Amino acid sequence: MNAGIVITTRNREQDLHQLFWLLAAQPRWQNLPLWIHDDASEAVSAEYWQTIRQRAQVICNAQRTGYIVNRNYSNTQAPFDLIFSLDDDSCFVDPDGPDRAIAYLHEHPNVAALAFPLVDSLTPAAASDLTPYPCFTYVGCAHLIRQDLFVKLGGYRCDFIHQGEESELCARIWAAGYEVHAFPGCRVHHWVSPQSRNYRRMGFYGPRNRVLNHLLHTPLLWLPFELVRSLASYSRLSWQTQLPLTHLHGLMAGMQHGIMHWHQRQPLPLELYRLLMALPISA
After folding, report:
1. Which of 39, 99, 227, 266 is spaced 20 to 30 Å from 235 by Cα?
2. Domain total of the chain
3. Do residues 15 and 89 make contact, with C-beta atoms less than 8 angstroms apart?
């Protein structure tokens, strides 16, 4: 099985330069081909395009379409059996981590994706326990997924637009009889670029898509509880972020969209739902 790295990006020239440098500095990562999907970047230098074309196979959008649409396209078109998904501001930290992850998926055909732990440094202390374990989902900037299963399950829902699409896909992965595992042997540092980051937009789509995910997949018996818990969670968060109206609008939008698409519900079997709620959320 061949593996490669897929990155979607927009207006993150400096972050990509840092990522290129980090990947080139580690010989064991140089064998991983790069596929970069640029979402109509405009705040970049003339040298940017030449640089990324020298380092990767590049898809350039003429108009902005959003990272979920771009991930769907690139995850289905990239010539990789196994797709490492990184953000333009994240990178591996363990030299042998990617090789270990590839070997693990090769040995465990029932595992569809691996979630990598996020660490706060490019040089963290050695992990104390490398044992993989089942978890519910992964984060977009730090995981490995099988391309054939991604395609078979239809990829991410584009109506999520921004945030939360990973957990919705993972619900379908588990429902299809596959698993997601946390993989401590391949850690990722996400330095969280301040560029092109709209916290108000995140504050809207986070609650919207959490509610939408419940309306799509939570068993009816648990649905009222989870909706109330979502409301309570974002009510508390509003005190920290000072975005109460944004969160409220997001919650209402999620309810509206979920009800409009009630016919698309794929509720998880009750026993599976209970199992997933007992698992760690991610790595």
Report:
1. 266
2. 2
3. yes
